[in-house]
From TrEMBL:
Coiled coil: none annotated. PANTHER family: ATP-BINDING PROTEIN PHNP, HYDROLASE C777.06C-RELATED-RELATED. InterPro entries: Metallo-B-lactamas, RibonucZ/Hydroxyglut_hydro. Residues 35-228 form the Metallo-beta-lactamase domain. This is Beta-lactamase. It comes from the Archaea.
Length: 274
């Protein structure tokens, strides 16, 4: 399984357009970037590719990283930065299966699958496959399991991707607070590679109107506001899941420049063979 981090940024990415903060400036100087979230998973045994989330930067990411176009995709939730690249497949892909959760979101009155189908009704070569969380689907020769996470007010899912032949395992937290349910943690546990949402360091919680939550024993917030993990929260989750390797993703340009490119914060284009 070859995993390419196509997009490691939050909803505005780094550099953010129109921003000359120290972190965006440092990114430009280093020639690195964090575009909107997407992960490419290639099954080298079957020569198929699975895309996790449709970044608005889809076209640019595929040109830049020269990975194969996807044979199937998973959508974790309906926020702009994870879904709105789907329109890019028009006249590019002949057919595509898009897997998304089948549970009704009380906030929207529709499941992620239903919203994707409704928003992209004009893409008649896209087949939306409603998928039951916590049940494993074989996609592109890989075992994929969606797991509920906490990203209020919308429902959102993380996922585990396992190679049934080699046992290699990739876990992705999705956009989530630290309050990942126990049954979801059990599915995500023991990955060879964990990609964990770590939007900002805990020190920035003072700047969020809702502050932080899910503090550890020393008072460090593991959740920023209500929707995302802090760096410290993501690393705590990685330790609890006993991840062999962890890359922090969904990163904002609000990281201070001195911390923004430290390990294990990811940048676009990183590739891992599991
Ligand atoms: Zn900036
Ligand atoms: Zn989100
Ligand atoms: Zn997001």
């Amino acid at each position: 399984m070859r995993v390419t981090l196509l997009g490691t940024g939050d909803t505005t990415g780094t550099p953010t357009v129109g921003c000359d903060c120290d972190t965006c400036t440092a990114a430009r100087e280093r020639g690195v970037e964090r575009t909107r979230f997407s992960v490419h998973v290639e099954n080298e045994r079957t020569d198929e590719s699975l895309l996790i989330d449709f970044s608005p930067d889809f076209r640019y990411q595929f040109l830049r990283d020269e990975v194969p176009l996807p044979d199937a995709a998973v959508i974790t939730h309906i926020h702009f930065d994870h879904l709105d690249g789907l329109g890019n497949v028009f006249r590019v892909l002949d057919d595509l299966s898009v897997y998304a959760a089948d549970e009704t979101d009380p906030e929207t009155g529709a499941s992620v699958a239903e919203t994707v189908r409704a928003d992209y009704h004009y893409l008649d070569r896209v087949t939306v496959v409603p998928t039951t969380p916590l049940e494993t689907e074989r996609i592109c020769g890989l075992d994929v399991t969606l797991v509920p996470v906490e990203h209020p007010p919308l429902i959102c899912y993380g996922l585990a991707v396992e190679d049934p032949e080699t046992g290699a395992k990739l876990s992705i937290t999705g956009d989530t607070s630290y309050a990942v349910p126990e049954e979801s943690r059990a599915v995500l546990a023991d990955p060879d590679l964990l990609l964990a949402d770590a939007i900002v360091p805990a020190s920035l919680c003072d700047h969020h109107p809702l502050g932080g939550r899910h503090e550890d024993a020393t008072g460090v917030a593991r959740t920023f506001g209500t929707k995302h993990m802090t760096r410290e929260g993501a690393l705590a989750l990685a330790a609890e899941l006993d991840a062999t390797r962890t890359r922090l993703v969904h990163l904002a340009h609000f990281y201070p420049a001195a911390e923004a490119f430290e390990e294990p914060l990811a940048i676009d284009g990183e590739q891992y063979v599991l």
